[in-house]
Amino acid sequence: SKVNAAVYQDVLEHFMLPAPDQLYGDADFIFQQDLAPAHSAKATSTWFKDHGIPVLNWPANSPDLNPIENLWGIVKRKMRNARPNNAEELKATIRATWAVITPEQCHRLIDSMPRRIAAVIQAKGAPTKY
């Protein structure tokens, strides 16, 4: 389905909201997202404020440094030879491919954030190798 603000907030409520306690315990964190319409909707901003979740200020037209883009790239490469015949097969293939991404791969991408940010700063916002 199309992801609008209501759908996005439902996903946040059921999947993102429990994660910080599991991942960070009592440590502080900042949530990162891009400026997709569902993310930048006033209702979504209110949802984050109501739940006390700080959101990284994300400038328009900025390089996309979100590690999720790299994870989607991994999924895409692993699925290169897949030939699903319909939407259900495609969904199943994506789920199966996503399931083989290891926590270590995710941690490496997260650990690369300081290098990514430094590269963007050095390039003054121009494209980088990331």
Keywords summarizing the entry:
130 residues, mainly alpha
Describe the protein in words.
The protein has 130 residues and is mainly alpha-helical. It has helices at residues 5-16, 19-24, 37-40, 42-50, 67-78, 87-99, 103-111, 113-122. The longest helix has 13 residues, at 87-99. It holds the Pfam family DDE_3.
List strands and helices in order, with pairings.
Layout: H1 5-16, H2 19-24, H3 37-40, H4 42-50, H5 67-78, H6 87-99, H7 103-111, H8 113-122
Order of helices and strands: HHHHHHHH
Terminal-residue CA separation = 30 Å
Tell the overall outline: globular
Gyration radius (Cα, Å) is: 17 Å
This entry's quaternary arrangement is single chain
**Average pLDDT over all residues:** 89
Q: Strand share of the residues?
A: under 5%
Q: Based on DSSP secondary structure assignment, what is the total number of beta strands?
A: 0
Summed up:
This protein is mainly α and 130 residues long. Helix content is 58%, strand content 0%. Residues 2-91 form the Tc1-like transposase DDE domain.
